[in-house]
Amino acid sequence: MPLALIPQNLDAWPPVWWVGCHGGAGASTLARLVGFGLDFGSKGWPIVTPAMPATNVVLVCRMSASGTWAATGAIEQWRRRSGMSGLITVLGVVAVAASPRRPPRIATERLHLLRGWAPQVWRIGWVDALLAADDPRDVGAPPDIEALRTAIWQKVHTPREGMR
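Above: the chain's sequence. Below: its structure in token form.
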């Protein structure tokens, strides 16, 4: 895990870590388009100690057979707390379109399965303009990204039961 991603000032702790379930999932693009949180990459889970604030994670995968398979594995790790702190809260899984075409049936079936395991599943459609953009913010956020931003912001900033 790259330790440079752990801020020294915990007041600057990001409200969300965007974690790619595999390389090329789209976590860095989503982090930039949504406008908050940090891209943690696709090498594993954030390192968390009891001295740190709550850690919210949004898992990101491509809407493909291999992408949804990787997301299934990541959710299974989180559910079993395999190799991670109990201080990590997964807010949900974002499945990013892998092409402008309809996703393969196996990917759709796996996403349906993930809906039963993950707290939330969001789908983001294909945005052709992002292929030609140096910075995704130059394209602007389409409606499904705006909806994702609102949903995650509300999850992060709504007091949890027992913490009121």
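The longest strand covers residues 88-97.
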